[in-house]
Amino acid sequence: MIGNMETNKKFGLYVHIPFCVSKCLYCDFASVVKNNTLIDEYTAALCKEMEMYRQPFSQSAFDTVFIGGGTPSCIPIDNLRRIIESIYKNFNTEIKEFSIEVNPGTGSKELFRMLYEMGINRASLGLQCADDAILKSIGRIHNVPQFIHTFQEVYSSGIKNINADIISGLPGQTKEHLIKSIDLAASLNAQHISMYTLKLEDNTPLKESVMKGDTILPSEDEEYIMSAAARGHLLSLGYQRYEISNYAKEGYECVHNLKYWKRYPYLGLGTAAASMYLDFRFTNTPDIKKYIEKINSDKFAIEEKSTLQDDEFFFEMIMLGTRLAEGMEYRKYDSFSPFRFKDKYADIIKGLADEGLIVPSDTHLILSEKGMDMQNNVLLRFMDED
Ligand code: SF4
Q1: CB of 29 shorter than 6 A to ligand 1
Q2: Bridge partners, 306 (sequence order)
Q3: I want to staple 158 with a disulfide (CB 3.0 to 4.6 A). Which of 67, 116, 346, 351 is the partner?
Q4: 70 Cα to the center of ligand 1, angstroms
Q5: Is 129 helix (H, G, I), strand (E, B) or coil?
Q6: Domain residue spans in the chain?
Q7: How far apart are CA 163 and CA 217, in angstroms?
């Protein structure tokens, strides 16, 4: 085992709520259509899972919490209250950032006020695109006025640090749609914008429709051109690109998500939730019924466990580090490695610099804007070398 110098870091806690109002056509996340009986059983299991982790993590401090999904804001207010109370009861929290995912068209003033009063200080809202026809074509339950309404309700509850998620490459989407989506989020005072490219996942209705020719997506080139324009627009509005898909006003980077990219430790609870500590990874079952059964019979719901091998560990460090605008620190890599990164990869680094894929730095491997857009291509070169 290699060990990890980040053991002194505080933990992040991720809590998964696998329920949604309905299933979006492109979604392959671990979520199902909500059902109140199942939500009650799941809430009880989740609170019990927290109790089961209480002892093993009694010496650890948690400074970020992220309640994600699914759609956490679609479950009854009392269930969410119990889940949040259970977090505070079972873990040593020294909260810097407590986030929750909220989907437009769900939640209420009462819910958002309760969340704020219980210490939630960040919300992430799925806008996806500021165009009702496009939202409908991908099976989202909300329209643009509902997004605005939910955003304003969250904001006026006291939660001022709000992210808006935007997807590029949607059916019928143009550069103008993306710019309009960014302008809408910015006009509402979103401090953070995440912009992802649509990934056509297997076994989703959207993929089936595209395969049949019933839905046409922008080509790769068109998507590239529109997201490049969107990136420029984000920068012009003062959002800094601090990670490949994430932009924030200064001081509003997502502290919890930074833990994933910086390889700081985190514990994931609920279905499909992943955890990392040192080189250990473990992931809970994605099956809700199985999860509830396991926890109810006093067993952890872990389905996969692994320990990273040396080559995986080093590759992961490059892969995650180069997602960040600050890049991967050579010194950090070298502290684990029998060789110096800059010596071993001297030819590759020179090639990347000649092609404008990295920016000059003596201390970090930093991808340029172009390099970030071609990160997979950059990573392949390090893979080929090993
Ligand atoms: S709201 Fe999110 S998690 Fe739920 S179905 Fe839609 S994309 Fe999937």
Answers
A1: yes
A2: 281
A3: 116
A4: 5
A5: coil
A6: 5-262, 310-385
A7: 26
Is 300 touching ligand 1 by the criterion CB < 6 Å? no
pLDDT for position 60:
94
Q: Is 27 in the pocket of ligand 1 (CB under 6 A)?
A: yes
Instruction: Give every strand in the sheet of 122-128, ordered side by side.
Output: 240-243, 246-248, 192-197, 161-168, 122-128, 92-102, 61-69, 11-17, 266-269, 274-277, 280-284, 302-307
Distance 351 CA to ligand 1 centre (A): 41
* Residue 30 CA to ligand 1 centre (angstroms): 9
The per-residue pLDDT for range 134-174, each reduced to its tens digit, is 999 999 999 999 999 999 999 999 999 999 999 999 999 99
Q: How far is CA 224 from the centre of its chain?
A: 21
Verify whether ligand 1 is closer than 6 Å to residue 31 (CB atom). Answer: yes
Q: Mean of the pLDDT values across residues 70-96?
A: 98
Residue 309: per-residue pLDDT: 84
Is residue 371 within 8 Å of residue 352, measured between CB atoms?
A: yes
Nearest-CA residue for atom 2 of ligand 1: 70
Q: Does ligand 1 come within 6 angstroms of the Cβ of 70?
A: yes
Which atom of ligand 1 is found nearest the CA of 28? 8
- Asked if 5-262 and 310-385 have one fold, the answer is no
Containing 54, the helix (H) or strand (E) segment is helix 36-54
Instruction: Specify burial of residue 240 (Cβ count, 10 A radius: 0-12, 13-18, 19+).
Output: middle
Q: How far is the CA of 299 from the centre of ligand 1 (A)?
A: 28
- 5 band by pLDDT with thresholds 50, 70 and 90: very low
- Residue from 19, 27, 135, 201 whose mutation best tests the ligand 1 pocket (most atoms within 8 A of CB): 27
pLDDT confidence tier of residue 384, bands split at 50, 70 and 90: low
Q: What is the mean pLDDT of residues 64-91?
A: 98
User: What is the phi/psi pair of residue 23, to 5°?
Assistant: -95, 125
Is the separation of the CB atoms in 71 and 19 below 8 Å? yes
Relative to the CA of 23, which ligand 1 atom is closest?
5
Residue whose CA is at the smallest distance from ligand 1 atom 6: 24
- CATH fold, domain 310-385, is Arc Repressor Mutant, subunit A (1.10.10)
pTM of the predicted model as reported, rounded to 2 decimal places: 0.95
